[in-house]
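INTERNAL AUDIT FORM
Audit reference: QA-55
Scope: verify that the stored structure record matches its stored sequence.
Auditor: D.O.
Record contents follow.
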Amino acid sequence: MTVWNFDGVPKAAQTMLANLPLMLSPFAVPAVPPGDAEGRAALVDLQAALNRALLYLQNPYARTDQSRHRLKSWHVPAVLLSVPIFGVLVRAGHPKPGITRNSIVAGVLQLALKRMEHGNIETGAIGQHLTRWFSASGMTTNDLTAYVTKT
């Protein structure tokens, strides 16, 4: 599984955003030729797109609506670790692992998050987050089982 560089991508976007006004300036060296309207328009479009995308690049797993649920520091690691844990349980012969508060997945995640210094998070909170996350993405535990058996 390929994971993008969560630190490098936003920094690259911020660097581009910081330099685009200079690139569009008629006094920049090297400047965009004044007669190159297509190139100038592309840079203006790039600037607008980067401004819109920066929030998603800085935190790709954050909700963009004005929800009352705020992303906590342990939310992303919990989701990322839950799939391999789920996969291990399926390969070990567990017929249908769950992601609720009393599940093995939530218990293992609680211990892992504690070792990662996220504090003592209750299994109920972990289970609730995983249930919301996977239902928002349209996945059920059956879908997760099918996914981990293919990989």
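Auditor finding: record pair retrieved intact. The two ends are 10 Å apart (CA to CA).
Action required: none
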